[in-house]
Amino acid sequence: MAFERFALILRSVRYGDDDRVVTFFSLEEGLLTGFARGANAAGNRFGAALSPLTFSSLLGRHHTPDSLFRLHKAHVIDPFPGIRNDYDKLVWAGLPVRAVLALLPHHVQEPALFELFLRYLCLLETERSSYALLWIRFSARMLRIMGFGPLAPVCQGCGLDILIGKVRFDPENGRVRCRDCSRMDGEKSREPVCQADSLRILEQFSGEDLRKSERVILSGHQEGQILDLIDQIISWHVHHWTFSGALPFLEKTAFPVKTEKSGHLSMS
Ligand SMILES: [Zn+2]
Fold first, then answer.
1. Under CATH, which number does the domain 3-80 receive?
2. Are 120 and 138 in contact (CB under 8 A)?
3. Per residue in 128-181, pLDDT tens?
4. CA 198 to ligand 1 center in whole angstroms
5. Residue 103 CA to ligand 1 centre (angstroms)
6. Alpha carbon of 145 to ligand 1 centroid (Å)
7. How far is CA 131 from the centre of its chain?
8. How do the domains of the chain map onto residue ranges?
9. pTM for this one?
10. Among the listed residues 249, 254, 11, the one whose alpha carbon sits nearest the alpha carbon of residue 131
Protein backbone atom coordinates (compact mmCIF):
# COMPACT_ATOMS: atom_id res chain seq x y z
CA MET A 1 0.00 0.00 0.00
CA ALA A 2 1.32 3.44 -0.95
CA PHE A 3 1.20 6.48 1.34
CA GLU A 4 0.99 10.15 0.50
CA ARG A 5 3.74 12.36 1.93
CA PHE A 6 3.74 16.16 1.82
CA ALA A 7 7.35 17.07 1.27
CA LEU A 8 9.88 19.76 0.55
CA ILE A 9 12.46 18.41 -1.87
CA LEU A 10 15.93 19.30 -0.57
CA ARG A 11 18.30 17.32 -2.77
CA SER A 12 17.96 15.26 -5.90
CA VAL A 13 20.83 13.33 -7.47
CA ARG A 14 21.00 11.16 -10.54
CA TYR A 15 21.49 7.47 -9.93
CA GLY A 16 22.60 5.46 -12.96
CA ASP A 17 21.08 6.48 -16.27
CA ASP A 18 17.42 6.59 -15.45
CA ASP A 19 16.85 6.84 -11.71
CA ARG A 20 17.12 9.48 -9.01
CA VAL A 21 17.80 9.47 -5.28
CA VAL A 22 15.87 12.24 -3.58
CA THR A 23 16.25 13.64 -0.06
CA PHE A 24 13.10 15.31 1.19
CA PHE A 25 11.68 16.76 4.39
CA SER A 26 8.21 15.35 4.92
CA LEU A 27 5.49 16.49 7.25
CA GLU A 28 4.71 12.92 8.26
CA GLU A 29 8.13 11.30 8.73
CA GLY A 30 10.70 14.10 8.82
CA LEU A 31 13.81 13.76 6.68
CA LEU A 32 13.72 10.80 4.28
CA THR A 33 15.64 9.49 1.32
CA GLY A 34 13.59 8.27 -1.59
CA PHE A 35 14.31 6.30 -4.71
CA ALA A 36 12.55 7.25 -7.94
CA ARG A 37 12.89 4.66 -10.65
CA GLY A 38 12.85 6.08 -14.15
CA ALA A 39 12.86 9.70 -12.94
CA ASN A 40 15.50 10.70 -15.53
CA ALA A 41 13.80 9.06 -18.47
CA ALA A 42 12.12 11.32 -21.04
CA GLY A 43 8.46 11.97 -20.25
CA ASN A 44 8.74 10.31 -16.82
CA ARG A 45 5.81 10.27 -14.41
CA PHE A 46 7.40 12.61 -11.83
CA GLY A 47 7.72 15.75 -13.98
CA ALA A 48 9.25 18.62 -11.99
CA ALA A 49 7.95 17.31 -8.66
CA LEU A 50 11.37 16.00 -7.60
CA SER A 51 13.32 19.21 -8.29
CA PRO A 52 15.05 20.75 -5.27
CA LEU A 53 13.08 23.55 -3.57
CA THR A 54 9.70 22.20 -4.64
CA PHE A 55 6.77 21.53 -2.33
CA SER A 56 5.35 18.26 -3.63
CA SER A 57 2.94 15.51 -2.81
CA LEU A 58 4.75 12.17 -3.01
CA LEU A 59 3.12 8.78 -3.26
CA GLY A 60 5.19 5.77 -2.26
CA ARG A 61 6.11 3.30 0.45
CA HIS A 62 8.89 1.74 2.50
CA HIS A 63 9.43 -1.97 1.87
CA THR A 64 10.87 -2.30 5.37
CA PRO A 65 10.68 0.46 8.03
CA ASP A 66 14.31 1.53 7.47
CA SER A 67 14.49 1.10 3.72
CA LEU A 68 14.45 3.88 1.14
CA PHE A 69 11.07 5.37 0.40
CA ARG A 70 10.13 3.98 -3.03
CA LEU A 71 8.47 6.75 -4.97
CA HIS A 72 5.59 5.71 -7.17
CA LYS A 73 4.17 9.07 -8.16
CA ALA A 74 4.62 12.74 -7.36
CA HIS A 75 2.98 16.00 -8.17
CA VAL A 76 3.95 19.62 -7.63
CA ILE A 77 2.03 21.65 -5.05
CA ASP A 78 4.21 24.79 -5.15
CA PRO A 79 7.39 25.22 -7.24
CA PHE A 80 8.21 28.66 -5.70
CA PRO A 81 8.92 30.41 -9.04
CA GLY A 82 9.61 33.72 -7.27
CA ILE A 83 12.57 32.12 -5.47
CA ARG A 84 13.79 30.13 -8.44
CA ASN A 85 14.00 33.19 -10.69
CA ASP A 86 15.93 35.29 -8.18
CA TYR A 87 19.53 34.33 -7.41
CA ASP A 88 19.58 36.29 -4.13
CA LYS A 89 16.46 34.53 -2.89
CA LEU A 90 17.96 31.21 -3.93
CA VAL A 91 20.93 31.81 -1.64
CA TRP A 92 18.61 32.67 1.29
CA ALA A 93 16.49 29.60 0.51
CA GLY A 94 19.64 27.49 0.51
CA LEU A 95 20.46 28.36 4.12
CA PRO A 96 17.55 26.47 5.75
CA VAL A 97 18.02 23.61 3.28
CA ARG A 98 21.64 23.20 4.41
CA ALA A 99 20.73 23.66 8.07
CA VAL A 100 17.92 21.09 8.05
CA LEU A 101 19.99 18.56 6.07
CA ALA A 102 22.84 18.91 8.55
CA LEU A 103 20.94 19.21 11.85
CA LEU A 104 17.93 16.94 11.52
CA PRO A 105 18.42 13.18 11.83
CA HIS A 106 16.53 10.97 9.37
CA HIS A 107 13.13 9.48 10.32
CA VAL A 108 12.45 12.01 13.09
CA GLN A 109 9.02 13.55 12.73
CA GLU A 110 9.26 17.32 13.21
CA PRO A 111 5.96 18.84 12.03
CA ALA A 112 6.57 22.25 13.69
CA LEU A 113 9.85 22.60 11.81
CA PHE A 114 8.22 21.44 8.58
CA GLU A 115 5.51 24.10 8.89
CA LEU A 116 8.12 26.73 9.75
CA PHE A 117 10.21 25.80 6.70
CA LEU A 118 7.21 25.90 4.38
CA ARG A 119 6.15 29.26 5.77
CA TYR A 120 9.68 30.62 5.33
CA LEU A 121 9.66 29.65 1.64
CA CYS A 122 6.15 31.07 1.10
CA LEU A 123 7.20 34.40 2.68
CA LEU A 124 10.53 34.49 0.81
CA GLU A 125 8.63 33.85 -2.41
CA THR A 126 6.76 37.17 -2.11
CA GLU A 127 9.18 39.17 0.04
CA ARG A 128 10.88 42.15 -1.63
CA SER A 129 13.57 42.92 0.91
CA SER A 130 14.52 41.98 4.51
CA TYR A 131 15.62 38.49 3.49
CA ALA A 132 18.23 38.53 6.25
CA LEU A 133 15.61 39.35 8.91
CA LEU A 134 13.42 36.50 7.67
CA TRP A 135 16.36 34.08 7.95
CA ILE A 136 17.17 35.40 11.45
CA ARG A 137 13.58 34.79 12.56
CA PHE A 138 13.54 31.37 10.93
CA SER A 139 16.77 30.24 12.56
CA ALA A 140 15.74 31.52 16.01
CA ARG A 141 12.61 29.37 15.84
CA MET A 142 14.41 26.43 14.26
CA LEU A 143 17.03 26.43 17.03
CA ARG A 144 14.33 26.50 19.69
CA ILE A 145 12.38 23.64 18.05
CA MET A 146 15.59 21.59 17.95
CA GLY A 147 16.33 22.30 21.62
CA PHE A 148 19.46 24.43 21.15
CA GLY A 149 17.99 27.56 22.77
CA PRO A 150 18.38 30.47 22.32
CA LEU A 151 17.69 31.61 25.88
CA ALA A 152 17.57 35.15 27.27
CA PRO A 153 20.95 36.45 28.50
CA VAL A 154 20.41 35.66 32.18
CA CYS A 155 23.51 34.22 33.86
CA GLN A 156 23.10 30.59 34.92
CA GLY A 157 25.69 31.11 37.66
CA CYS A 158 24.59 34.23 39.53
CA GLY A 159 21.19 35.00 38.00
CA LEU A 160 22.27 38.38 36.65
CA ASP A 161 20.08 39.68 33.81
CA ILE A 162 22.75 40.90 31.40
CA LEU A 163 21.62 43.94 29.45
CA ILE A 164 24.72 44.99 27.57
CA GLY A 165 28.19 43.70 26.91
CA LYS A 166 29.43 40.25 26.13
CA VAL A 167 28.22 36.91 27.42
CA ARG A 168 29.45 33.38 27.03
CA PHE A 169 26.80 30.96 25.83
CA ASP A 170 26.53 27.22 25.48
CA PRO A 171 25.44 26.33 21.91
CA GLU A 172 24.16 22.95 23.11
CA ASN A 173 21.29 24.42 25.12
CA GLY A 174 21.53 28.22 24.86
CA ARG A 175 22.55 28.72 28.51
CA VAL A 176 24.47 31.86 29.33
CA ARG A 177 27.13 32.91 31.84
CA CYS A 178 28.28 36.42 32.70
CA ARG A 179 31.94 37.45 32.48
CA ASP A 180 32.55 37.04 36.21
CA CYS A 181 31.05 33.56 36.41
CA SER A 182 32.88 32.34 33.30
CA ARG A 183 36.10 33.78 34.74
CA MET A 184 35.50 31.77 37.93
CA ASP A 185 35.24 28.67 35.71
CA GLY A 186 38.76 29.47 34.60
CA GLU A 187 37.72 30.46 31.04
CA LYS A 188 38.49 26.88 30.11
CA SER A 189 35.53 26.72 27.90
CA ARG A 190 35.60 26.84 24.10
CA GLU A 191 32.07 28.19 24.27
CA PRO A 192 31.48 31.18 22.01
CA VAL A 193 31.04 34.74 23.19
CA CYS A 194 28.36 37.08 21.85
CA GLN A 195 26.66 40.38 22.59
CA ALA A 196 23.88 40.11 25.20
CA ASP A 197 21.45 42.21 23.13
CA SER A 198 21.88 39.95 20.06
CA LEU A 199 20.98 36.96 22.20
CA ARG A 200 17.99 38.82 23.66
CA ILE A 201 16.61 39.58 20.17
CA LEU A 202 17.17 35.99 19.06
CA GLU A 203 15.38 34.69 22.16
CA GLN A 204 12.45 37.05 21.49
CA PHE A 205 12.24 35.93 17.83
CA SER A 206 12.34 32.27 18.81
CA GLY A 207 8.82 32.56 20.22
CA GLU A 208 7.31 34.72 17.47
CA ASP A 209 5.74 34.21 14.09
CA LEU A 210 7.95 34.89 11.06
CA ARG A 211 5.60 37.52 9.74
CA LYS A 212 6.17 39.95 12.60
CA SER A 213 9.18 41.14 10.60
CA GLU A 214 7.61 44.45 9.56
CA ARG A 215 7.41 45.54 13.20
CA VAL A 216 11.12 45.21 13.88
CA ILE A 217 13.89 47.34 12.45
CA LEU A 218 17.43 46.16 13.11
CA SER A 219 20.39 48.37 12.27
CA GLY A 220 22.80 46.95 9.71
CA HIS A 221 25.35 46.49 12.48
CA GLN A 222 22.89 44.62 14.73
CA GLU A 223 21.73 42.46 11.84
CA GLY A 224 25.34 41.54 11.06
CA GLN A 225 26.01 40.62 14.69
CA ILE A 226 22.91 38.42 14.90
CA LEU A 227 23.69 36.70 11.58
CA ASP A 228 27.15 35.98 12.94
CA LEU A 229 25.70 34.62 16.20
CA ILE A 230 23.39 32.27 14.26
CA ASP A 231 26.33 31.07 12.19
CA GLN A 232 28.31 30.44 15.39
CA ILE A 233 25.50 28.37 16.91
CA ILE A 234 24.85 26.33 13.76
CA SER A 235 28.56 25.79 13.03
CA TRP A 236 28.96 24.42 16.56
CA HIS A 237 26.77 21.51 15.44
CA VAL A 238 27.58 21.41 11.72
CA HIS A 239 31.20 20.81 10.81
CA HIS A 240 31.26 22.36 7.33
CA TRP A 241 28.81 25.22 7.82
CA THR A 242 29.58 28.18 5.55
CA PHE A 243 29.00 31.49 7.32
CA SER A 244 26.30 33.60 5.70
CA GLY A 245 28.72 36.54 5.42
CA ALA A 246 30.84 34.44 3.05
CA LEU A 247 27.97 33.64 0.70
CA PRO A 248 27.71 35.48 -2.63
CA PHE A 249 24.69 37.72 -2.20
CA LEU A 250 24.29 39.50 -5.49
CA GLU A 251 22.66 42.61 -4.08
CA LYS A 252 26.03 43.55 -2.61
CA THR A 253 27.68 43.70 -6.03
CA ALA A 254 27.15 46.56 -8.43
CA PHE A 255 25.39 45.77 -11.67
CA PRO A 256 28.23 46.03 -14.21
CA VAL A 257 26.17 47.66 -16.97
CA LYS A 258 25.22 51.33 -17.10
CA THR A 259 23.11 53.39 -19.46
CA GLU A 260 24.91 56.12 -21.41
CA LYS A 261 23.27 59.48 -22.15
CA SER A 262 22.79 58.25 -25.69
CA GLY A 263 20.62 55.44 -24.30
CA HIS A 264 23.16 52.75 -25.20
CA LEU A 265 24.31 50.26 -22.62
CA SER A 266 27.96 49.96 -21.69
CA MET A 267 29.98 48.01 -19.18
CA SER A 268 30.86 50.10 -16.14
ZN1 LIG B 1 27.09 35.27 36.61
1. 2.40.50.140
2. yes
3. 888 999 999 999 999 999 999 889 999 998 999 998 889 998 888 888 988 888
4. 18
5. 30
6. 26
7. 12
8. 3-80, 129-236
9. 0.88
10. 249
